[in-house]
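Troubleshooting log. The previous structure file for this entry was overwritten by mistake, so regenerating from the original sequence record. Sequence copied from the archived sheet and checked twice against the printout by T.R.
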Amino acid sequence: MAQPPLSDSAKISLMTCAPWSGAVYALYGHTAVWVKDDSTHTDVVFNYGFFDSSQPNFIYHFVRGETDYVLGVTSFEDFISEYRSKGVSVWEQPLNLSQGEKQTLWKALYINSLPENRSYRYNFLYDNCATRPRDMVEQYVEGKIIYPKTADNQTYRNLLHECLHPYPWMEFGIDLIIGAPADRKIDERDKMFLPEYLMRAFEGAIVEKNDTLRYPLVQQTRVILTSNNAAKVSEHSIFTPLNMAFALLLITLLLSIIQVNNINNGFPIKVFDTLLFGMVGLGGTIVFFLMYFSEHPATNPNWNFVWLNIISLLIAVLFWIKSAEKVVHIYHFINFAALTLFLFFWWLIPQQLPVASIPISLCLWVRSGANIWLTRKKKRKQKRYTSAKYLKAGWGQ
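Regenerated output below.
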């Protein structure tokens, strides 16, 4: 792409695309920069959201936070056709830029799009397709941009919930893997990691050149593509994480009552414990990996690790090893104590945990408690039997 100088009639606009329910990464919307100059036949869109999912070990690198995104350049028609086919809305905000500001921003975008410059290390919260255009505009506007005030008590997690609320399982999954850093209060600039919040911020932003010269950052906000279907398809049903967690708790209580009354550790109970602690252990493995082997800055510390821990996966195997009974008993004792503290002080934990974690934690608490009680009862029974045997031997019986 050659870079002709822009004419006086050229415009540079921020483009905001509504969320699309067809892909997980599209649930948050999208942002791009449109440069249009009829005099030079320039009509291109700079898009910081390109990534190659076909790269080797893409999922592994994405989980580790080692994904490189690319600044791509497409024609406006190709860009708008994609969102027309998805049926989502697109807004344009022409920027109030001087001719010199347009030219320097246009040049910077062009240089940034060159093969040797276009890659960047993507970070969902701090460096993404929305924050990159904001940073470029801030860098090349000759003045201080003052953004409108927003709510003081919002966090990254709050904003993610706004996008994911119609999708309870995705919301639950995000709440499990992102930790306490996502619950700190964030300012206006922090919130711009979401395209919709960036659009609102630009809509009310003022450029302050000096004490006497102030003007709006954008000329207007207008719809250039109207949605022809719902951008968000609700997944709400009775099969929500919270409902399923309470159903699991009910099953756990019933099985535990049966086990305690029969005073045995039958095969079905052992299978249930294996599945329960095994699934928790698998989830704990993911949380552990994200906490200690990922570059994602919002995954450590993560208080979900108290109940969703990797040790449960090992214990699920040890349930079937006779010689490991003592190790299993010690684990249940520690797990019961840890979960007791976790549940008792749940409201004081400096992280917004998913409510569904309470009934799931209670499942683990009940199973560890039942196993501790049965083990001790078995030991008391064996002790009484041994004592009676010795007494009979002493009486010559």
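The beta strands are 11-17, 30-37, 42-50, 68-75, 90-94, 119-121, 144-146, 206-208, 214-216, 222-225. Archived copy saved in two places this time.
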